[in-house]
Design goal:
single chain, about 675 residues, alpha+beta, Ubiquitin-like (UB roll), Leucine-rich Repeat Variant, 4 domains, 4-stranded mixed beta sheet, 4-stranded antiparallel beta sheet, 28 helices, disordered C terminus
Length: about 675
């Protein structure tokens, strides 16, 4: 008989004593269980003790967490959290350096437990630790080790969120920032200092201002050029925290500072292309930096074009000038009047593929993508001029219905890229899908646009699309991009090659392959539909097969030397009980009557009838049976051998071959 669910069997250990095997009743108070354990080892004052896990982080067991104890768990009897906190508080302030170091090691370990942390913080433990750091006394021995454990304990205690980070003093901040800026500092101290600064920035806007004044971009970038990936990870994490918490008007300034300090190329060469594999936490931080960098585009993405702003209108004029090598100045057109210029502009804007030919500025009033689309178009025209001119002129020379409108395509493509890259959204804590190719260029988004607009033009031609197919083309282009990104190309050129392999015909092939996959056919709705209609379909097939057998069919007669001779005919009686068969003088063109067929045999004796299919039983737990019809290779009955026993005679070889042919034609599996 299994034990009650409230009873948990555990082992309890105590240094220097044999372990106790205990059945814990979860309904009993924890204090009474601890007293029972102490009595087993004759330990006085059970209120000084508690239970904790022997493995892992060795967390204390409380009334709130005792439900997590499983059968077979090994526990330890330990000093209670309040007593342990009091003892450690005394030891870390001891005059003996060895005592203080041992106490700080134990404190760093116990601080991960929220029960102990609460007791230690209530004794002003945080204040004691910050004073130890602020004093900055470089003791003659064990200073670095002592400081590393102190910072570890401080960080663990603060991470519980019991006290606010705002209680940290400016002196403490300066001291921690000093460890980050020092050229030669112990790796453990540097790692914990970077982690503490990151937590301060993320948890307090006030502390962000103070830390931003103490830490420079150059100091953090220098830590990316080391060989220790842990230090690199914490450095990028702090950069991300400063970037994330910076006011909107300061973020672009920070990005410019990163560019001046070559942050992107340093990350590319020392982190992404380093000799070490990228760990999960580093991948997450690179993903966060990628998202924050793209989020700088949000302002332009959400900015509508002002049709009355001459500076913005000049950008459209510049696009026209580059495409058609035309001067916007009316003085270059001798004798041109206002109406003539307007007509010429309208024609050019139509060739550029704008929806509004009269005033193309109206095409950029929808957000997203807003002015970001115009920025991308201008970038393409200036930095990929040959590509820009080729796309515009190539499409303007096609028939109207087959031209790919560049302006409309560029606007829609920019919106699509913003959606795919989630521009404007905060980083997701659970994601780490950074793309190395975005760290290979300072204008990665614009370069991505330049590649994808060429892809769009190529796909348009492959689909032989017309204006009515615009949305279909954009769907295919989205699929091409989203299929290429997961391969995480190392460079933009590799991404371009991947897109080249994903032609329209390849997309169609992939779609067809995925539609035919078993996963689609095994989806719950399809399985439910199959189970619902299968009995009806099987019954229909059964009736069709029986009707066909009742109609009968003729077969060529095969002689002993494999020569085709006369015909023979076989059909099932209308009552489905008897098989009629016999030789024919010639191939039957119409119905052959039962009377003209001299031989017959009982269908049941021949094995023709309803048989349960084991596969059907497996598919239908309720016991529903699939029905199938079989014509056997062997018959028994009077017709098997004239004058022989009616139920056991063997069928002659010729008849057996004939019925085998019937079986091959009519068997339903």
């Amino acid at each position: 008989m299994p034990p009650p669910s409230d009873i948990v069997k555990v082992a309890v250990e105590w240094p220097g004593a044999n372990a106790q095997l205990l059945e814990i009743d979860q309904k009993r108070p924890l204090a009474s269980i601890i007293k029972e354990v102490c009595d087993g080892w004759s330990l006085p004052n059970p209120e000084y003790y508690t239970l904790r896990y022997a493995d892992g982080p060795q967390l204390y067991i409380t009334e709130q967490t005792r439900c997590d104890i499983k059968n077979g768990t090994i526990l330890q009897l330990a000093v209670s959290p309040s007593r342990a906190a009091r003892q450690l508080m005394e030891r870390i302030q001891s005059h003996s350096m060895e005592v203080r170091l041992d106490a700080m090691k134990e404190l760093a370990k116990l601080s991960a437990d929220v029960t102990f942390a609460t007791e230690f913080i209530n004794m002003e433990g945080i204040t004691v630790l910050t004073r130890l750091v602020e004093s900055g006394t470089k003791l003659l021995s064990h200073y670095s080790e002592m400081l590393a454990f102190t910072l570890t304990a401080f960080l663990e205690l603060m991470d519980h969120g019991i006290v606010s980070w705002d209680m940290v003093s400016i002196t403490f901040i300066k001291q921690i920032a000093g460890y980050v800026s020092q050229p030669m500092v112990d790796v453990s101290i540097l790692q914990r200092s970077l982690a503490i600064l990151e937590s301060m920035v993320l948890n307090s806007q006030t502390l962000y201002q103070k830390i931003a004044e103490e830490i420079t971009v150059g100091q953090l970038i220098s830590h990316l050029q080391v060989s220790n990936q842990e230090i690199q990870t914490y450095a990028i994490a702090l950069i991300n925290a400063l970037f994330l918490k910076a006011p909107e008007d300061k973020r672009q300034e920070m990005a410019n500072s990163f560019a001046q300090k070559h942050l992107r190329s340093i990350i590319l060469n020392h982190v992404i292309r380093g000799n070490r594999p990228i760990k999960t936490e580093m991948a997450h931080q690179l993903y966060v930096l990628q998202v924050l960098t793209f989020n700088l585009l949000e302002e332009r993405m959400m900015t509508k074009m002002d049709p009355n702003d001459q500076a913005q209108r000049d950008i459209i004029f510049e696009l026209r000038r580059i495409a058609f090598d035309a001067e916007s100045d009316s003085n270059t057109i001798p004798g041109s009047g206002t109406e003539k210029r307007k007509a010429m502009y309208t024609k050019d804007y139509k060739m550029l593929g704008f929806t509004n030919h009269i005033n193309p500025a109206m095409d950029f009033t929808q957000t997203p993508p807003g002015m970001l689309a115009l920025d991308n178009m201008l970038y393409l025209a200036k930095f990929h001029q040959d590509t820009y001119i080729r796309i515009v002129l190539e499409n303007s020379s096609r028939e109207d219905k087959h031209e790919c409108p560049f302006g409309r395509s560029a606007i829609e493509l920019t919106r699509m890229l913003c959606e795919i890259l989630q521009v404007g959204e905060l980083p997701n804590e659970g994601r780490n899908d950074y793309h190395p190719m975005f760290f290979t260029h300072d204008r990665a988004f614009e370069e991505l646009f330049a590649i994808c607009i060429q892809l769009l033009n190529k796909t348009w031609k492959e689909m032989r699309a017309t204006a009515e197919d615009f949305n279909k083309v954009m769907q295919v282009v989205r699929e091409q991009i989203t299929r290429a990104l997961p391969s995480k190309p190392n460079s933009l050129d590799q991404f371009k090659s991947k897109l080249r392999s994903l032609s329209y015909s390849e997309i169609l092939r992939l779609r067809q392959s995925e539609r035919m996959s078993q996963d689609d056919f095994q989806s719950p709705p399809i399985v439910e539909l199959r189970e619902k209609i299968q009995p009806e379909i099987l019954e229909l097939i059964k009736q069709q097969r029986l009707n066909r057998l009742c109609e009968g069919s003729s077969f060529r007669k095969i002689g002993n030397r494999r020569r085709q001779e006369r015909f023979w005919y076989c059909r099932l009686a209308l009552n489905h009980k008897v098989l009629h068969y016999g030789d024919l003088e010639d191939n039957a063109q119409g119905e052959v009557t039962f009377e003209s067929l001299q031989e017959k045999n009982e269908a049941a004796a021949a094995g023709l009838g309803e048989h349960p299919d084991p596969r059907g039983a497996a598919a239908h737990p309720q016991g529903a049976e699939q029905l199938r019809l079989r014509v056997p290779l062997r018959l028994t009955g009077a017709a098997a051998r004239p004058g022989g026993p009616s139920r056991c005679a063997a069928v002659p070889g010729l008849l057996r071959r004939r019925l085998a042919a019937v079986r091959l034609l009519y068997e339903f599996e």
